[in-house]
């Protein structure tokens, strides 16, 4: 009976250690998941902001091109 009790105690101890290790790994994975979600969201925001900036720059370039064409025409009319 003594060996049986020792074996049972050893198995229970090992099971508790495994439960603790599992809980720690689960916590670590949840934290990693949270960080990945935050990084993904930050990249999405940056992507949309960059897209908006490109859109604005294209509009500015179009305006400058129109102004340049008008200036060229004005100079051609003068001379």
Structure, described:
Keywords: Coiled coil. Residues 8-74 form a coiled coil. By secondary structure, the protein is mainly α. The protein has 1 helix and no strands. It has one helix at 2-78. The termini are far apart. The mean pLDDT is 96.
String of helices and strands: H
Strand fraction: under 5%
Helix content: over 70%
N-C termini distance: 115 Å
Q: Sum up the overall morphology in one term.
A: rod-shaped
Q: Please state the structural category.
A: mainly alpha
Low-confidence spans: none
Total beta strand runs: 0
Q: Report the biggest beta sheet as strand number plus sense, adding barrel if it closes.
A: none
| Overall radius of gyration | 34 Å
- Tally the helices: 1
| Overall average residue pLDDT | 96
**Oligomeric description of these chains:** single chain
Looking at this protein, list some descriptive labels.
single chain, 79 residues, mainly alpha, 1 helix, 97% helix, rod-shaped
Write the layout of secondary structure elements.
Layout: H1 2-78
Quick summary:
Helices cover 97% and strands 0% of the residues. The protein has 79 residues and is an all-alpha fold.
């Amino acid at each position: 009976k003594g060996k049986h009790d020792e074996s049972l105690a050893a198995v229970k101890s090992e099971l508790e250690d495994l439960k603790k290790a599992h809980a720690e790994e689960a916590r670590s994975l949840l934290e990693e998941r949270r960080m990945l979600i935050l990084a993904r969201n930050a990249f999405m925001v940056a992507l949309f902001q960059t897209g908006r900036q490109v859109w604005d720059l294209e509009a500015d370039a179009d305006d400058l091109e129109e102004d340049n064409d008008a200036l060229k025409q004005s100079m051609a009319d003068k001379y």
